[in-house]
Amino acid sequence: MNQYNTTLNELGAEFRVLHQTLSDFDGDVTDEVKEKYIDALLNQINERRGDIGAKVDGYVHVMTEFDNGADACDAEIARLKVLSARRRANRQWLEDKLKRFLLDNFTDSKGKTKLDTPLHSLTVVGVGGVAALEVDDVSLEVVPEPMITIIPEQVIPEQRIINKNAVRDYCVAVENEVEIAGKKLEPLQWARILPRKKKLNIK
Fold first, then answer.
1. CA 56/CA 81 separation, integer angstroms
2. Same domain for 50 and 63?
3. For a pLDDT cut of 70, what percent of the chain falls above it?
4. Which of 18-22, 58-62, 193-197 reaches the highest mean pLDDT?
5. How far is CA 44 from CA 26, 64, 195, in A?
6. Statement to judge: residues 120 and 92 lie in one domain
7. In terms of domains, do 113 and 101 share one?
8. How many CA atoms lie within 13 A of 52 on its CB side?
9. Is the pLDDT of residue 80 over 90?
């Protein structure tokens, strides 16, 4: 697209009106209304064949003005997205610091963390759902047979994989100090249930 040094003020009145009218149309009217307006302007240009070149140049300049405006909007959107991400990160940093402060200073003997202020009630609680299971990359030789699943040949060539549900059940039993034949279960060295994440509630 050619670059134009003229400004809207240097164009004919109809093109200043065209630019302003389409700007006013943004999001407010149907395409049909816009189309009728443009068709009428093009017919007017066609009737004035003597200065059609200048008129079409003015028309194209208005197109360029809208391109420039759209580019400016895109740049502003990008800037605001960066600013928004920074502010959300700052907010999260403040929350994490406050959560750590409450856990360190306002957790009672029962493990409950709570602080009441004149305006708010703050609590730190564990995130619900199933706690995450972490399994190291280990040889199946160290995995007890009950924690191994065999995928039959009918599906793919027979494979032996770790049954994570069985591993989880065992880890939970260890945490609950379950005993078998009077002996506590030994923790697995290659798998563990990760601590639940904590979240800060503010009411």
1. 38
2. yes
3. 76
4. 193-197
5. 23, 21, 74
6. no
7. no
8. 9
9. yes
**Residues 80 and 33 occupy one common structural domain:** yes
Q: Which of 84, 105, 126 is the last residue of a domain?
A: 105
Residues in the chain: 203
Whether 195 and 128 map to the same domain: the answer is yes
188 and 126 Cβ atoms separated by less than 8 Å: no
The number of folded domains in the chain is 2
Asked whether the beta carbons of 102 and 113 are under 8 A apart, the reply is yes
| Secondary structure percentages of the chain, helix, strand, coil, to 5 | 55, 15, 30
First to last CA, the chain: 56
Confidence category of residue 161, pLDDT binned at 50, 70, 90: confident
97 and 117 within one domain: no
Q: What is the pLDDT of residue 83?
A: 96
Q: Which tens digit of pLDDT belongs to each residue from 42-66?
A: 777 666 655 667 777 777 887 888 8
Q: What would the pLDDT profile of 107-123 be if each residue is shown by its tens digit?
A: 998 889 999 999 999 99
Give yes or no for a contact between 99 and 127, defined as CB atoms under 8 angstroms apart.
no
d(CA 159, CA 165) in angstroms, rounded, equals 17
Domain span holding position 116: 109-203
| C-alpha distances out from residue 67 to 61, 72, 74, 181, Å | 10, 9, 11, 79
